[in-house]
Amino acid sequence: MEPFDLILIWAGIIAFGVIMYVLMDGFDLGVGILFPFAPTEEARDVMMNSVAPVWDGNETWLILGGAGLLAAFPLVYSIILPALYIGVFLMLAGLIFRGVAFEFRFKANRSRYLWNWAFAGGSSLAAFAQGVVVGSYIQGYETAGRVFTGGPFDWLTPFTVLTGVGLMIGYALLGSTWLIMKSEGYIQQWAYRITPFLLMAVLVIFGIISIWTPFVDEFVRERWLSHFHIIGLLPTLAVFCAWKLMSSVRKRQEGVPFVATMGLFIFTYLGLLVSKWPYVVPPNYTLYDAASAYESQLFLLVGLIFVIPIVLTYTAWSYWIFRGKVRAGEGYH
Amino acid sequence: MELDPVLLSRIQFAFVVSFHAIFPVFTIGLASFIAFLEGMALKTDNPIYERLSKFWIQVFAVVFGMGVVSGIVMSFQFGTNWSNFAQATANFMGPMLSYEVLTAFFLEAAFLGVLLFGRGKVPRGIFFFAACMVAFGTFISSFWILSANSWMHTPAGVEMRDGMFHVVAWSEAIFNASFPWRFLHMVVASFLTGALVVAAVSAWFLLKGRELEANRKALSLCLWMLLVLAPAQAVIGDFHGLNTLEHQPVKVAAMEGNWERSEGVPLLLFAWPDQANQTNHFELGIPKLASFILTHDWNGEVPGINETAVEEQPPVAIIFWAFRIMVALGLLMIAVAIVGLVLRKGGRYWQAPWFLRSLTVMGISPFIAVLAGWFVTEVGRSPWLVFGEMTYAQGITPSLTGGMALFTLIGYVVVYALVFSAGIYYLTRVFNGGLEAEAAPHDLETGERPKRPLSASHARLEDDDQPHPAGEVPHGTL
Q1: Which of A65, A146, A308, B359 counts the most CB atoms within 10 A of its CB?
Q2: What is the pLDDT of residue B171?
């Protein structure tokens, strides 16, 4: 028996990486989703400026997650990626387009509207695809002998479309509350106005997903029924966050709405984790089935222990440098 | 016609990786060139070095950005198209690829920002240090990737248990037999790429009569570099070939177009390999030279392709011709370096228009040579994904159909074509701006903020020659 349960440590690292990605890339994808609805072109400048300094740092969590998953839980990587083959392509295409749009929009004049569409379309597509991943995870994957055996469009069902749309609107909510915090004047007023509608849509869709899930997944149904007193706590906390968000918007607070939205995401995410634990490739494989060799997990962990604190410090520093309001016509010099 | 998911996945991977490789190959060389310029600037206080460095850092930023964007796809392809391979090799490949990502993060987090935006804001010594660390980081990144790739050619340090390779000796696996030569060959190739591209752009500026002093300096540096590295690369390539002869003899046999094991084998300059009949047509060669190069003996014995069963042979024609393209371009680089040396007398190397024009054209040659070289080594491994252990057919994603593979292949071609056109077009704008643009004072405009690679560059995507559409706020005038 090995001295530590590395599998648990790695599960923690990956779970942390995923929620970091969802929260951080979530708000900048959300800003992209809201792009077509912005009141003016000037507002779009401000919106893009508010995420420009940090978005690529946010996205690096996705790459680290992809590589880390291959290293620590290869079975997840080698079943879920084939199962979502076309969805993964759409997500990557979306991320590439919006990444390029970030760089070129500010340098363009006549072609700017094209970059606007690339930014909005790419962000929406990537967010939808990520929501579909969540839905397909709840649905489970058809496997045999540690290999995906389902069809090319198993991931596209009414349920996953709903989770896809749900995450899109959820990201848009993160985006609008981020804008409340980072903008002022008529742009902030616009963000205040749309936030309650987005929240309502999110609550309705999350609600439908929660009611639908036990019908899609028997395992979740049994877990919920047997551990209701503990699991019931998480949706309660999520609802509290939603209430806090609503009341803070009414009071025109600036930072609380974003924090409350993050809370909503975190508790929903935790709810999903405890509902499925310890299955990482439902319905057949747990994280222990999916793990790579002990020595491989250890070999990578050594490097990670040095690099993660640096990346976190750098991330915190970036956000600190670019703190405060973003004003129209002003870059950080 | 039945669509073959294996073939389509191979084409897709070759396309994506070839497209991606163009960028790092250039940035690795360029990063060292920038570090060198910064070192000289610090040592000599000659403002020319700083001006050159400022310009090339802009180019570096754009190319680095394109490399990152095109690289995102790579880390997912192993899973989408080669899931059995991913699963079987994860214990080794997973940590290798993750370390590459960690290195890149570390580099970006700690030093890239300083290099792109820190000039004048941090002490000069620190700035030079950041430039060195960025250059060093590019080597470490390629170290991990090339180790992983070399392991697929010469697997070592692992044992197979329950369908997965388990690493039993990390140092043997990482420093596997083909790694040292492949790494050296690639690093020198990157330096050559950097030198030839800088030479090409400098020559172009000189032809236009722009910034003569600085560009002459850059051209001179590159030509010296070329004079040392181009011949050195030929020697390193030879050793790399000998290493391949030992571990993957069939690949070398295919490179030489030698079907039957024999002595005193000629070096074929031209031939039309015919795999179906296991022979060549229209052979034209220099007697005994291949034997001499490979065994250092005029009558040495060279293995034949037909020692490998027909169904396990790689496609000979591709390897044979890709190898000739690479070697021909390498020889051309040596020739250019020698001509450059001859033209030193009287400073003709920066004045003779015909030489400058040839240099401008040569700017593309290292990219073709590098891709041709990679085609030799990668196609030469087929049908093995992990040489001698796992074939393409075993490594493919079982659920993948030909239609799905075709869909994403077309998709990636379209996406990359769009991104690539925008990137190259923008790069030509940066080149057009030249050193002068960077020297002219400019205010950071709206949205041009630090911390994104392209913000390091100030060129516009279009000429500002048309009025802005009504209702749109003119950029940078608020």
Answers
A1: B359
A2: 96
